[in-house]
Design a protein that fits this description.
The protein is α/β, with parallel strands linked by helices. The protein contains 9 helices and 8 strands. An 8-stranded mixed beta sheet has the order 1-2-4-3-5-6-7-8, with helices on both faces.
Length: about 270
């Protein structure tokens, strides 16, 4: 074997080894990458009380709650992966004055809560949030579930298990696996990714009115994901916001779209 061939084989072997090391690091650190829980804790605001509810695997989670006016639905809000429940207060500050109650749900491993976040765990956290509302006399049919970004995965799963009054997804992905495939085409996500959040596989089976909101300038989760989800439900309402990015949930236009959607549902209910 000639020296140039040996050098070439050495370079190829080194590249393969480096690639495998990177994949191993991604596999080991994916939890931190997917769930970058904020370290700075902002104080509760907006008249919310801190409440605690227990998950099916024995974790006591602290979250924020504000009761609504009699006869008004309650918003169950699942925030994104880089936020905490106090951010949900900001994202619902136009809903509260209209009389809606809000449970700003929280996840394990976030805002000082025990546990480590992962897909099945966040589903347990979502079920515990719904169970908490039930203890306050609020049935699933009186709940509007809203999920922002990765919270869309929890929201879709909860809406597939109990029928809410409505489901609102803000900046959602069709699936986390698909998003990783698009962002990191060189990564075999099917082998490495533990958490999938397959929204596209579940959305058609959800028996609740659906609103999808997305910004066309979202560079983290492209609006093609909301468009894809919308095509899977003929009755879905899709609103694309020009020039808005992944922070859409905190813009007044998004909340106004949610209010308009819910007002339409309430009007239809009154007519019936």
């Amino acid at each position: 074997m000639s020296r140039p061939v040996r050098v070439l084989m050495w370079i190829v072997g080194l590249a393969i080894a480096a690639y495998l090391i990177v994949l191993a690091l991604l596999w080991a650190q994916q939890g931190r990458l997917i769930y970058p829980a904020p370290t700075a804790l902002t104080p509760p605001t907006g008249g919310f009380e801190q409440v605690t509810y227990r998950t099916s695997d024995g974790l006591d989670l602290a979250a924020g709650y504000r009761a609504g006016e009699p006869g008004k639905p309650t918003i169950l809000y699942f925030h994104g992966n880089g936020a905490d429940w106090v951010s949900s207060v900001v994202a619902t500050d136009r809903l509260v004055p209209s009389g809606y109650g809000v449970l700003a749900a929280e996840y394990r491993g976030y805002r000082g809560n025990p546990g480590t976040p992962h897909e099945d765990g966040l589903y347990r956290d979502g079920r515990a949030a719904l169970a908490f509302l039930a203890t306050r006399g609020i049935a699933a049919g009186d709940v509007v579930i809203i999920g922002n970004s990765i919270g869309s995965g929890v929201a879709v799963q909860m809406a597939s298990e109990q029928v809410p009054q409505a489901l609102v997804l803000i900046s959602p992905f069709a699936s986390l696996r698909q998003l990783v495939d698009e962002k990191m085409r060189w990564v075999p996500s099917g082998l490495l990714l533990r958490d999938r959040y397959e929204n596209a596989e579940k959305i058609a089976g959800i028996d609740a009115p659906l609103l999808l909101l997305h910004g066309d300038a979202d560079t983290l989760i492209p609006d093609t994901h909301s468009r894809q989800l919308g095509r899977l439900r003929d009755d879905a309402k899709l609103v694309i916001f020009e020039g808005k990015g992944h922070d859409l949930a905190w813009h007044d236009e998004a909340e106004e779209a949610v209010l308009s959607f819910l007002d339409t549902l309430n009007t239809r209910g009154t007519e019936r």
